[in-house]
Structure formats: structure tokens, C-alpha cells
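**User:**
Make up any protein.

**Assistant:**
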Amino acid sequence: MTHDFIYRWRDILDILIMSYILFRLYVLFKGTNVLRVLMGIAVLWIFQRIALYVGLIVTSWAVQGFTAVAAIIIIVIFRNEIRTVLQAKNIRALLWETRHHEVETPVNIITEAIFEMAKKGTGAIMVIPGKEDITDSVHSGIKWDGSISKEMILSVFWHENPVHDGAAIIQGNRIMQVGAVLPLSHRKDLPSYYGMRHRAAAGLAENTDALIIVSSEERKNVVMAKSGEIFNVYTEEELSNRIKKHLGIIDEKRTGYRKEKMKLVTAAAISLVLITGIWLSFTRGVDTIITLEVPVEYTGSQQDMILLDTSVKTVSLNLNGSATLLKNLTTGNVKITIDLTNGEIGKNLFYITNDNISLPPGVFLRNTTPSSINIVLDKYSKKNVPIQADWKGKKPRDIQISSVSFKPAIAILSGPSLLLNEISTVYTDKVPLENITESGMMLVNLDLDDKIKVENGSNGKFTMEYIISRQVVAIQGQ
């Protein structure tokens, strides 16, 4: 019961976190091309999942590759828009706020100034950026950062001012740049009487979502460019309404606020439903059962304690979950850990439970084989043991081995105490008797378990000295 409850709250938290991230992406990129492309990628991903589910392997593979490439294209093409969104003034604006409390642009001042300049025949061009970053499209602007006023605008575009031919970039209630150079449009359908200002306005409108306002010096009228279109504006009220629409200024009436709130609630609900569907497709889907051999890891042993032996090296786990998750599951994603902190010297029995096994979300344990592990724990110790030669073969009939001695005479052994306790005498490697024809000495190794080390001798070797005597063998028949 406890294990099921842990999975339940983890799953809910997983869904809520990802739903909120998706909702924040909608809020931050609302109204930009980035959001529209992200929605297209989401549709492709859903189509890929459907293709995989019904068994369209090649189609699924192709759509998956195209989706991955599209994600990279978003980062490259829309890097400026992404950078603008992420350059929030504070963490609250990035993670929490749903309405941007920016300083409002003084629309009436702009419209009044532009129509006054048009009436006097003063050429001017002003840019009000939209959601997209215009940094790569605007060049050579001079930083200004002055508060917007009618007098300020008129002075910027006064014909004696060195920057009057360039564009003024407006953000909020300030003129950020003056004298900026905009990209020219190469459209063939523009009227022949359009000058450089008109073509610059059309060029920027073709490349970005900015709104550009032009005061014509020759024709003494006001022209606006937006979304690749350029057209005349005849009244201050018309221009004011178009600027407000561009800036997304919401009427403070209750109906407008409710409409905006309803959009956010709908977006949050869609995010929750979409992420829940994705989570279910990963964690549930078509229930599949697999068996995975996982090596056992050990932690928490006492400082001087060693793992001497185990009944098994790996455990067979019977797992179930969605085919999508299990298809990519490897032993690197699953861990079996036994804590030896409470282990004692000698044989120990440890049971394998859910607490010992770490599984990815959406993968569930059915059973284990075996369900327990026998582990032998020990401590290192030392022991002095006498050495004895171990012979093999047959010695010549006239040869008698009178004595055998070793230098050093005693072997100092170190290793697991349980193994050392079983050793009373240590034997050499097999020494062939047929090679013994006269007294002499030789270097010999000791026949020991790999877990036991020799602390003395010459690199673990001992000098064996043997003395032989010859016997007179009676000849048969004499």
C-alpha cells in the first residue's frame, strides 16, 4: 500500500510540473511565431505517437526525425525572440506573471505628433516593435533613451537634426534609438511615388511583426506598415486604434478582462490534458512484461569489513509497463542496492524488496528471482603458518630426501579471517620429484586462494632447501 501511494503522488507531481511549464511557454510566447511553430511540432509529435501505436514503423521514424530537426530550427531561427523572452527583469515575470505590467506607450502623443508633422510636411519614421526582436533588422541606430513627448518627437525629426532621416525606435514610454537604418523592401508592386522611408517601412514590416509609422514629406500624409502590408491612415483615431491593437492594450472593461482570463484558464486546461495524455502514453500504453538481469550493488559496509562471497551476482527482475518505456530500458536505468551497514561477520541473508530496487517512473516490479541473497562478510586479519612441500611424481629408487627447510621458515598470511582460520599449514605448488637428483635449493610459490596474500618472502616466493642421500639398491638374484 505504501509503495503504491508513493508512486501516486509522484505521478501527480510529475504531471503538474510539466503542465505548468507548458502553460508558461504559452504565456511567454503568446502572439509570436515561436508559439505557432511549437504547436506545429506538437501536432507532429502526436502524429508520430499514433503512427508508432498502429505499427507504421517507417512513418514514425521519418516524423520523429523531422520533429527533431524542427526543434533545432526553432532555436536557430527564433533565437532573438527566445532571448527576448528569457531576458526577464525578474524571476517572477518568467515563472509567475500572466500579464505584462509594462509602462504603456503614450499612443495619443505619438498620433498627435505624427499627424502634426505630416501636416507641416516633416518627414518621419517611427518603429514600435511587437513580440519579435528587431535587433538583427535594425542597424546604425544611436542610443537615445528619452521619455516620449510631443516636443521630443518633433525635435528628433526637425530637418536640421542630423538624425532626422533615420527611424526612431519606441519601446514603452521611451524613444530608445534614433537615426536607425531599416532594411529596404524590393517589392515591385509599391507605388512609384514611395520614397526611401516608405520602402524602409515596408522592408521592416516584411521581416518582423513591428508596426512602422511614416510621415510623408512630399504628400503630407500618414502611412502605416504592418505584417508586410503598407497603407494610408487618414485620422488620428484610426491610427490610435491600430497602435493599441498592435500593443495588445486591453480595454479595462470587465468583459475584456474576463475574456483574457478565460483564455488563460483554457490554455492551462489544455496544458494539463495534453501532459496527462503524454504521461499516460509513456507510463501506461500497451502493458508489456520483460525480464531484465541486473547486477547487484553493495553499499554501507563497515570500514574494515569485506564482502567475501555472494550466492548470486545478478538478480532477474520481472518488470511491466508501456512498450515505449521498456523498449529503451537497460541495466543502466535500473539499480539493485543492498545496504551492508547492519551485516555481521559470517553468513547473512538479505531479502530483495522494492526498497532495494530503483526503477524509472512508469516501470513496475512484478517479482524477483531469487527473492533473497546469501552474503558472506568477513574482516581482514593476519596469521603465521608453517610451510610444507607438496611433491608430485616418483623419485628415483636410490634417492632419499633427508630434510627440507624453507627461508623464511614461516609464511605470514593476510586475508579474510574465515579463510585464514581454516589454514593450519600452507603447501607449496607441486614440486616434481623426478627432477630431484642431488641436494640443492629452489624458489617456490605457495598454493593459496586468490583472496589471501603473502606478506613475506621474496615477492611472495620462498627458498626451499632440500638435502638428499643415496641408498644402495640390492641387485635382485645376488
Q: What stands out?
A: DSSP finds twelve helices and 21 strands in the chain.
